[in-house]
Write a structure and sequence with these properties.
single chain; alpha/beta; Udp-n-acetylmuramoylalanyl-d-glutamate--2,6- Diaminopimelate Ligase, Chain: A, domain 1; five-stranded mixed β-sheet; 13 strands
């Protein structure tokens, strides 16, 4: 896969979403010094440790959901330094991957057994509208918690605020902890709301409106969207070797 093929395919997959978020730096490229790439790794985040791990696997390109955050002071500069040192290209796709139909929310919903997508997550004037999916057969909240625990490979926080069995699931992966999103889930008839960060306001409001809530980590609620993108690249460019980097379960959910 050459560089132009890669970038053209991203535009094919994401369409106007790339243009819409170009000025907001919600996706980008770094250190694309090679013309041809055969070995690609993916992860939710980029950190110095993950770049070193990619180098151990002789990876030529790293694809992530997040860029290094500017407010994690100094880390972005260190990541760029290491990418240059190891001659690894980096591409990150943030909000476009959240809002594309095969993206972060849809990918996790399908892992949880959703058979029907009612609404895809989308951008509404800077606000992430929830994705909504339905299970074919309603299940107890505790059973869905068990499924999500197995899927994420980590402890899942949950708050049972209703005895309603779960059929309709509302979700925003990652930092979907706004009360606006919980209200949208309530107004849309969801039986549970799932996200990747927990705040005081999240749990207070969920309890107040009697809406069940489940919370995993930011990293592992979003990894399956990156995996979906990597799989699409593999389907288009069969010669690619795709590797998932191993990230730590270090976001404690109490």
């Amino acid at each position: 896969m050459d560089v132009q093929q890669f970038k053209s395919y991203l535009h094919e997959l994401f369409g106007p979403l790339l243009t819409a978020f170009q000025e907001d730096e919600e996706y980008g490229f770094c250190n694309f010094t090679l013309n041809h790439y055969e070995r690609i790794a993916y992860a939710t985040n980029i950190t110095p440790e993950l770049i070193a791990q990619a180098a151990e696997h002789n990876v030529q390109m790293l694809i992530t959901h997040h860029d290094a955050w500017d407010f994690v002071y100094g880390m972005k500069e260190k990541c760029v330094e290491l990418l240059n040192q190891y001659q690894i290209a980096h591409c990150y796709i943030h909000l476009p991957l959240d809002y594309v139909e095969f993206g972060t929310c849809t990918s996790l919903l399908k892992r949880l057994g959703v058979s029907k997508m009612v609404q895809y997550s989308r951008n509404m004037d800077g606000y992430s509208a929830i994705g909504i999916g339905e299970l074919e057969t309603p299940v107890a909240l505790e059973k869905l918690v068990g499924t999500m625990t197995d899927v994420l490979g980590e402890k899942v926080f949950f708050q049972k605020n209703s005895n309603q069995e779960i059929k309709r699931i509302g979700m925003v992966t990652g930092a979907g902890n706004g009360t606006d999103q919980l209200k949208e889930a309530l107004d849309s008839g969801c039986d549970v709301y799932i996200t990747g960060e927990k705040t005081l306001y999240t749990v207070q409001y969920a309890k107040f409106i009697n809406l069940n809530i489940m919370v995993g980590s930011h990293t592992f609620t979003e990894i399956f969207g990156v995996e979906s993108l990597a799989q699409k690249l593999k389907e288009r460019f069969d010669e690619l070797e795709i590797i998932q980097l191993q990230e730590e379960h270090n976001e404690v959910i109490l």
